[in-house]
Write a structure and sequence with these properties.
It is built from five helices and two strands, in the order αααββαα. It has one domain. The protein is globular, with a radius of gyration of 17 Å. Strand 1 and strand 2 form a beta hairpin. Helices cover 44% and strands 7% of the residues. The protein is mainly α.
């Protein structure tokens, strides 16, 4: 865990006093964005809980992604409704292989049975080790 998330553990950030935004900034600095960052951050929180690492009460789990996907959103500007197209998804060639694979990973759910959680952690660990060898 400490080798996969060394950028968190070697930072100057005190995890017992940090906020969600401060920790997410570390993930962003590693190049993780969007859904990939959300999943990696959620996995990190699950790992710290499982390992008994004490975190600040100000660090909250990431919100789950909306089920809407590519639907159009309504944005409010000048008190009027305006339809705004969502930004186009990142082109696959701009994402690393591990980012593409991670985007296909299901979001971790602490409500899963213990065996399913273990298999998810094992698969995620294997993916992280694959990324290290790139």
């Amino acid at each position: 865990m400490t080798s996969s998330y060394d950028f968190v553990f070697t930072s100057e950030l005190d995890l017992q006093k940090a906020t969600t935004n401060q920790v997410e900034e570390l993930f962003s600095a590693e190049g993780l964005q969007g859904e990939t960052r959300r999943k990696a951050f959620g996995f990190f929180l699950a790992l710290t809980k499982d390992a008994g690492i004490k975190l600040s009460p100000h660090i909250k789990p990431p919100r789950t992604a909306s089920a809407g996907g590519g639907r159009r959103r309504t944005a409010r500007a000048n008190n009027s409704d305006q339809i705004v197209d969502p930004p186009p998804p990142a082109k696959p060639e701009t994402l690393s292989r591990s980012q593409i694979l991670l985007s296909k990973f299901p979001s971790f759910d602490p409500a899963w049975p213990e065996e399913v959680q273990k298999r998810w952690f094992d698969a995620f660990d294997k993916l992280m080790k694959t990324e290290d060898s790139e």
